[in-house]
Amino acid sequence: xxxxxxxxxxxxxxxxxxxxxxxxxxxxxxxxxxxxxxxxxxxxxxxxxxxxxxxxxxxxxxxxxxxxxxxxxxxxxxxxxxxxxxxxxxxxxxxxxxxxxxxxxxxxxxxxxxxxxxxxxxxxxxxxxxxxxxxxxxxxxxxxxxxxxxxxxxxxxxxxxxxxxxxxxxxxxxxx
Length: 176
Fold this sequence. Notes:
With 176 residues, the protein is α+β, with helices and mostly antiparallel strands. The chain has one domain (8-171). The protein is 26% helix and 32% strand. The chain is built from five helices and eight strands, in the order βαβααββββββαα. The chain has helices at 28-33, 45-56, 58-66, 145-151, 155-165; strands at 8-12, 37-41, 72-82, 88-99, 102-107, 122-126, 130-137, 140-143. β3 (72-82) and β4 form a beta hairpin. α2 (45-56) packs antiparallel against α4 (145-151). The chain is globular and about 35 Å long. The termini are far apart. The model is unreliable at 1-24 (pLDDT under 50).
């Protein structure tokens, strides 16, 4: 990367694990199903607003994860892993636990850029590394603010995500 060029931030758009497919996805929905990477500029306003919203609502999410209702499941955190070259890879982490601002959990995606880390591996991270959260409630996906940000430019893809995963981005992914 040329010096002074804007850093690119890597977002893993997967909603869970999937088999790696060699051909590139044609859209975000297909990319999520294939556990593919999606590049977003570091200064992307919609993405930064989504991360801010997720972080602001994190305490409520952690409370729900600690004491879920019977119809709430698959709680996950999207975690930024800073690489040695200044880039970042974002991974979904499930079955997490925390003590204060220190977390540990199981990686749900196939890490592409983090040396030595594999799907189902253990990741230790801090609260400041969390960029998003999500869980399922009934047939709906709650949270996943960053995916809603990526879908703002494509109403057709947004409809596909809403139909397949129950993600409702009309409120940015937040609960109603």
